[in-house]
Design a protein that fits this description.
132 residues, alpha/beta, Rossmann fold, 4-stranded parallel sheet, 7% strand
C-alpha cells in the first residue's frame, strides 16, 4: 500500500501546468507496485476541490484510490510528533494534517507519494517518500 498525498491528486484534478505530468506518471508507475490509497485527512483536504461527496467519491472510484481508516496507533503517533514539533518551537496550535498522514504511513510501514516532503522527512524519518 502507498498513501497518495493531497498535492499529487490536486495536481492531476486541476491539471497543474507545472506538476500534472509528473503526478500522473507517478500515479501510473506506483500503481504497478502498490495499492494507492488515501486516508480521511487526505479525503477532507480533497473535499475543498469538489462540490459534493458524490463527485469526490466518483472521482476516487474512477482513479481506483480507496479510503483507508487511520488506526489508533497512528493517531497517537501523530499527537506525539506534534508535541515534539511544539517543544521545538512550532507555532501551529492544532495537529497538522501532515502529522496524521505521516504517522499513518509510519505505523503501516508504507511510503507516501508527495511533492511536499519537508515535514514528513523531519518528523517521520523512517517513512519512504516518493518525491520529485
Amino acid at each position: 500500500m502507498m498513501l497518495v498525498d493531497t498535492n499529487v491528486l490536486v495536481d492531476v484534478l486541476e491539471d497543474d501546468p507545472q506538476w500534472a505530468d509528473w503526478s500522473i506518471q507517478q500515479l501510473r508507475t506506483q500503481s504497478q507496485v502498490y495499492t494507492l490509497s488515501i486516508n480521511p485527512i487526505i479525503y477532507a483536504e480533497l473535499a475543498l476541490t469538489f462540490s459534493t461527496v458524490e463527485a469526490l467519491d466518483a472521482t476516487l472510484s474512477k482513479m481506483r484510490i480507496p479510503l483507508m481508516e487511520v488506526p489508533k496507533p497512528a493517531l497517537f503517533l501523530a499527537g506525539k510528533a506534534f508535541a515534539r514539533y511544539k517543544r521545538a518551537g512550532g507555532t501551529k496550535q492544532n495537529v497538522l494534517p501532515d502529522f496524521f498522514i505521516g504517522a499513518h504511513a509510519a505505523v503501516l510501514g508504507c511510503p507516501i507519494l508527495t511533492r511536499d516532503a519537508r515535514r514528513y522527512r523531519h518528523h517521520f524519518p523512517t517513512v519512504r517518500l516518493i518525491t520529485p
